[in-house]
TrEMBL record:
Cofactor(s) this protein requires: FMN
Positions of modified residues (FMN phosphoryl threonine): 212
Protein name: Na(+)-translocating NADH-quinone reductase subunit B
Taxon lineage: Bacteria, Pseudomonadati, Bacteroidota, Flavobacteriia, Flavobacteriales
Source species: Flavobacterium azooxidireducens
InterPro entries in the cross-refs: NqrB, NqrB/RnfD
Main location: membrane
Length: 383
């Protein structure tokens, strides 16, 4: 390791203070701190010493995403091949999926990190680690056949408008990955919704049908899949959103390591289950009659576990997290049921609650202040 450390120090010399390439130091430092803990100290404000820094936190989230990503890559190939041949070997499905998914990941990281490096050099600050997660999340929540140039434009919009315009990592109001998906959804709706976008090569092969369960229910049809298929994720959908099983494995990693808020995750599922139960009592259409199965399909589980728990755009207070998560689950099912044109509602629900998260925290804090004032006044009266 000392050999590597010495080599990196040697490479960094021309980028040091007062040297010819000093302006580009943030780009080199980003590569250095990817391998080693930064050796600089904070100079202003509060100082917190902890063994886990932002980079390690982001890498933990990336590791939590890996199970869903691997399954989603295999499922992307399986969904395509299973509709044109009876037997689908595991490796054939995985290779087909990798052929589609890896270029999307490469474009997402290439374009997004390029913009991050540019803003760091221009503004003269270090490259933040937030895009390690965002760069992986964006392709995971997109349709498998989304053209790469559309993905690149979505990344540009998310990084510049959703993140850098507010000051960069830690300053964004909305979840950047969902901002990218929202941009793609409204800019290129024919590539983001419909029966032909969720299965690879469905638009060019007549034999392939890629209608999602929510799409079928919105059209008044039966779901067409059993509960295990919905839980395991062997159904059409966004690249890595279909398997609740592997998403829960990722959730366990986030909760055990303390990176993700279990309060938001639990309250999110409770909000969705409560709303689904109420609509099942009403039972006016197939979407209402779907009941607790709502928790197993679409992007609900993925959104609650990996998007709603974003530490920047989520509520920060303990009670606020319960309210924030519950409302995300509530609005997700509400949008599904009342908007047949867009039965997947978790994206809009999370973005909506991102906007209201500071308000929720404000009223939670104000409520605590009022209760303490009343308690002190009562103690003074009895003293």
């Amino acid at each position: 390791m000392k050999f590597l450390r010495d080599k990196i120090d040697q490479i960094k010399k021309p980028f040091g203070k007062g040297e010819k390439l000093e302006k580009f130091a943030p780009a080199v430092n980003a590569l250095d701190t990817f391998l080693y803990v930064p050796n600089h100290t904070t100079k202003h404000g509060a100082h917190i010493r902890d063994a886990v820094d932002l980079k390690r936190t982001m890498i933990t989230v990336v590791l939590a995403l890996i199970p869903a990503l691997i399954f989603g890559t295999w499922n992307a190939g399986y969904q395509s091949l299973s509709q044109i041949q009876e037997v689908v070997p595991f490796m054939d499905a995985l290779i087909h999926g990798m052929w589609k998914v890896l270029p999307m990941i490469a474009v997402s990281y290439g374009v997004g990190l390029g913009i991050e490096f540019y803003f760091a050099i221009v503004r003269g600050h270090e490259v933040n680690e937030g895009y390690l997660v965002t760069g992986l999340l964006i392709p995971m929540i997109m349709p498998i056949d989304l053209p790469l140039w559309m993905l690149a434009l979505s990344v540009i919009f998310a990084v510049i408008i959703g993140k850098e315009a507010f000051g960069g990592t830690g300053m964004n109001i909305l979840n950047p990955a969902l901002t990218a998906r929202a941009f793609a959804f409204f800019a290129y709706p024919t590539y983001m919704s419909g029966d032909k976008v969720w299965v690879s090569d469905a638009t060019t092969t007549d034999a392939i049908s890629g209608e999602t369960i929510l799409g079928k229910l919105a059209a008044g049809q039966e779901a067409g899949y059993d509960t295990w298929s919905m839980f395991a994720g062997t159904i059409p959908g966004s690249i890595s959103e279909t398997s609740v099983l592997w998403i829960l494995v990722g959730a366990a990693i986030l909760v055990i390591t303390g990176v993700g808020s279990w309060r938001i995750i639990v309250s999110g599922f409770l909000g969705a289950a409560f709303t689904a139960f109420l609509f099942e009592l009403w039972g006016a259409n197939p979407l209402m009659n779907f009941g607790m199965s709502h928790l197993l399909v679409g992007g609900l589980a993925f959104g609650i576990v990996f998007m709603a728990t974003d530490p920047v755009s989520a509520a920060q207070t303990t009670r606020g997290k319960w309210i924030y998560g519950f409302l995300i689950g509530f609005f997700s099912i509400l949008i599904r049921v009342f908007n047949p044109a867009y039965p997947e509602g978790v994206m809009m629900a999370i973005l909506l609650l991102n906007v209201f998260a500071p308000t929720i925290d404000h009223y939670v804090v104000e409520g605590n202040v009022k209760r303490r004032k009343k308690r002190v006044a009562k103690q003074l009266k009895t003293a």
